[in-house]
Amino acid sequence: MSAMTDPYAPHHSFVRVAARAPQLWRVVLVVVGFEVIFALSPDIVMIFLSGEAARNAYLEGTSAFGTLAQFFTFVIGCVGLVMLLHLVHGRGFWSLIGPAQSAWRDLCAVAWGGALVLFAQELLPPWYDLGSDVEVRPFARWLLLIPVTLLALFVQVGTEEMLFRGYLQQQFACLSKQRWVWMGIPSIMFGGLHYWNGNGATEGFMWALWATMLGAACADLTARTGNLGAAVGLHLANNAFAILLYGISGWAGTGVALFLFPYVDPIEYSAEISALPTQWIIFQVAGQMLSVLVMWLAARIAIRK
What we know:
mainly alpha; 3% strand
């Protein structure tokens, strides 16, 4: 297939840098090292927090400080990944990103495109019941928090994309030309990590399925553009809407949400895997798939590829 007809032609140059040290043992070493650093990140942050109130806020993640501090913690994982990349593969930060100018252009285009699609989806049914029992945070304060929230999310999604669509996608593409390998395996790994976001097997499965689909969409965009910008933009738009609009009172990650629904015990969402075939669950899964598909198509339009 020629470069003129191959939609993934830019991917070849994106992964070429990884061919200098493609051995699988290096990949295992980096992934294990990253997981160790990531697991230790909260403990490192706690060292620099003075006072029990700040530490509790950070661990709970229900206040603006706690939520944003948790997202900014990803910078430790980012630095750790780059250090491991230097030590194990002898390459640097920009080798994961691609051409800087193209990456920034694609990031901005896809982030705006994804945000417009998500905003349009909010206008469509089914709508949330924003009755009197829903807490609405002060609008002016919420607006002021948006820039720092976007920065914190940029750190979070940037780190995740550097690992999954940057490092792992490049390395697996050097090990195999099969798309199910370099696109599928990192996406499944990404989805599997999101299983633990759920409360119970059914919700965990839905989280994992949605994240796997999002990962595949980001992998496709990375292959089409030859840089990480579009993937970061799509991921950023998705996460920004997820945490800036709605949350459940008392749940982690809700410190910057505009609308807070009354507290619900997480055990109410802990349905076993046998609940998956129910009509409501099938409807939710279909909605998730459609949402990712529409965002991916919007991103394709934004980057014109």
